[in-house]
Amino acid sequence: MGHGYEDRISPLKAKLRRWLFTTNHKDIGILYLATSIFFFFFAGALALVMRTQLYVPNNNLVNAYYYNQLVTTHGLLMIFFFISAFAFSFANYVVPIQIGAKDMAFPRLNALSYWLYLFSGILFITGYAMPGGNIAGGWTIYQPLNQIQYSPQMGENAAILALIVLSVSVIVSTVNFAVTITLKRAKGYRWIDLPMFTISILFTIMMMWMAFPIFALDLGLLFIGRVIGASALLSPVGGALLWQHLFWFFGHPEVYIVFLPALGIMYDVSSLFSGMPIYTKKLMIGAFAIETLMSLTVYMHHMFMTGTDLFWLNFANVNTLIIGIPAGVLVLGELTTKIKGTFRPETPALFTVGGVIAFIIGGASGLFMANIALDSGLNGNYPVVGHFHYIFAGTILFGIYSGLYYWFPKMFGRMYSEKLGRLHFVTSFVGLNLLYFPMLALIDMPRRYYTYPAGLGFTSLNQLATIGSYIFGFAQLIVIINIIYSVRRGKPAGDNPWGGWSYEWLIPTPPPEFNFDGVPVVQGDRLLILPVARGASESEHHAGGHLSPWPFALSFGIFVSLFGLTVYSYYGGAYNLILGLGLMIFSIAVVGWFNDDYHDYFPVVERDDDPNKETWPFRHMDSKRLGMWVFITGDMFVFFAMLGAAFFIIWQSPYFNLQPAHLESLTSLGIATVVLAGSIFSLYAACLGVRKDNRDMTVGGLLLTMMFTLIYVGLTLSNWSELAAAGNGISNIAKDPLLSVFYDAGIVHMMHIAAAMALFAYFLIKGLNGRLTSRMNSSSIAALFYFWSLVAIAGILLTGTFAIA
Amino acid sequence: MLIEKLMLSASTSVTSAVWWRLFNIYLVLSIVFSGFFIAWIMYLVISTRERADREIVNHIKPGIIPSSTRGRPRNVAFLVLFLVIVFFGLFIYSLPSTYYLKQVPSSKANTITIDVYAAQWTWTFRYPNGYNVTGSANVHNYTAEFPVNTTIIFRVTSLDVMHEFSIPSFKVKVDAFAGVWNTAWTDVYQQGTYTAFCTELCGLGHADMYVHMTFVSPAAYSAWIASQK
Prior knowledge:
The structure holds two protein chains of two kinds. By secondary structure, chain A is mostly helical. Chain A has helices at residues 11-21, 25-53, 64-99, 107-126, 154-183, 196-228, 236-272, 281-294, 310-337, 347-370, 372-378, 382-412, 418-441, 459-489, 536-541, 550-571, 576-598, 623-651, 653-656, 666-691, 695-725, 737-768, 774-804, and strands at 185-186, 519-523, 526-530, 613-614. Chain B has two domains: 2-102; 111-227, Immunoglobulin-like, CATH 2.60.40.420. Chain B is 34% helix and 26% strand. Chain B is built from four helices and ten strands. Chain B is elongated.
């Protein structure tokens, strides 16, 4: 795409370098698109095998061993590796342009998100080749089925680690998008005026911010339990229910996380292709906000059959109905947007209409399941499968498909084939209904049965669904043919083929490396790109500094080490060499990344003090500090979930059969409080030192902080060894559920401390060499201060909880 | 009467009768309302489609932010009101059914309690006199008889992983956790053989984990259980 820095090296090498080391949001968007489509076809093929198996009763095409892997990995791949990433490929490509930014706030972190996503997917897929096969306990990973005793397969360890890495990738994206949308908007761009897609991504990341740290924690607990071979937290008594709480607390927001971006796309397409502004846009944004806030309160509707008190089930039921209202309003808003306009029946608009119809059917079927009484006949049966596939494969997939066709001309510079697009829509829509409507009618058939007996009336509806699945699967080949054909031979699209209003349609096709040749500014209701004199700033951009090998190398290191950890956790022995190799690659990448920062090799595209940026209401924030705020407040949910689990166990102690053990003493609480509080103050002194350019104060403060931290670590480790001597060591956690929460929390906390120590050391080296200046570094050390405050306060709270409990 | 004949029902027990009545109300309302909205969107799409003989409406101009004040908030308020009435009307209407199905009747007359043990991958019924019957797709030659016209309380637990005890014919369903007793109940009025399934993925034998239950007259049941020790 004419990037200046490519001209000096050979074309193949340049191409390779560009795609492996890119930090450009548009390249990363295309990488996301290609990767997510690969996972779509992979997981879709698994589904076709399942549908073929269910075509006749008592079929033996695949046995339960394979079927359980198929059903589990189909769900996990589609939800985590396809549908979210598919939406975020457009978020990556389009959101920075729509808000008038030249790139994401943290381009290297953006690349890191992608590579972590890709390598976690590869790690997940390696699970199939491992002894015992891949994860097979359902995408909800219910306990205790997924403990090592009941699911001994090695592939499950790989899959769990892969999902942890994916969560990290999502958390990194969350921080990046939050900062980008908040601080990088064009001057004068009001929140309310942003395109609906950007707004929907903003609300999506709010939910990702709350949900994914908890998912990472859940999986971490599960993995620790599987490796140690016993975890009382996941024990049969009580652990099963605790897992459901921890899982669905994440799992329900996840549904909205994939739903909102599709809705945002459908709004923009609906409005543009009927030539009318969005109907009551402000109220619709309000509906997004209600949806986001309430997403955490409805999760217990997945637990209607658990025997939980009816009061709480009714509470969840009422919340579910309340959250259904903004959802209904949002989808019907797409309908009312069309009133009095002129409907242009192009492919994106058709997919939007199909998505709305699928939502009406899927939503109506969901009402049945939201009723506690009716759920007695539906929970765990095929109507549930039909319902959520109408939403996922109907509304959400169709919504994102309309985005694919809508932005295709901008991304690839050529038009797709309209004929093939319409054919894709019609076959998809017919296939969708033929596939999932029979499932709604299969009221009595249990889910996840690899085969079913004849004579129960299940056969004909299953056959209909299988035929539908072939049609639906075939339809997806059409879009691939369309993409491959049109990328090469489509008609040149021009800059604005649809007559769209937002920034992505006002810049050339394909977009230049930094999106805008001028300065995007919004004046009143006009989106302008003011010309600037080409000069120093432009040549800085094209210096070749926007390639970074470290995100790729870091992710690759994590992949190798986690692959090694999986094999080692199963076989032991010399397999830790792979783990070591991975950690080495990882360390080299981290050092390389820090080294780039140390020398300021990686130029900033848009400075935080750029006067052409709209940052209301965060006028006094900069990227690093805001990013850290987003991260630590999300991270707080991890510690809250830990403390929540501890209190869940303490309050329900008869149920959990607790054996009293003193895990922390009041003395250690006292020392920990003094030491950790002291470290906060000493780090604050270091911050002041940077701000006042006082090198001695900076170095002294950092050294003191590191000393305090080491005292705390020593204290913790000696406590652990004392506990181990008393028979309450880390290998004894099966004994007592509280003990397992204690060590899980301790390990998570220690990982935070290790990260903080690495950052302290980095700042210390930089400070000793006099490279910490108030102009360049006061915001980054302030961000470190926020992070450390969270870690220190969490340390005090955890020690206190276990001292008192 | 005609409507009742058209409705889906396969009532074999008091619990499934209540369930199907509620289900049919939901079915009728969801067909009516979703039909209405689908018809509305089809009407909008067809009536506003691009045609040669009609002026093209386009209020979207490149580079100009579309108005964010289109539409009357009042209309959205009506829609919200409509959804509130439908959703909460149905919720309040169904509350008695919810309590009826989910709460085990407390009257002791004419009641038997069966303990149900879920294990990978069989069901075991433990009768009040201590007699055990274990069944699954792979266990043959068992008979599990139950009386009709009697309140049967199932106390369900698991011996290993999580399972879910489900008898679709009676709309009985409850989770089975190890170490926890959950209850469900029914009162069957039609004799015959029914099947209980596991509806929570529980490992390799999940699909084999179903058991046949024979419902006979109370007299026949008494005779059968007396002969089993």
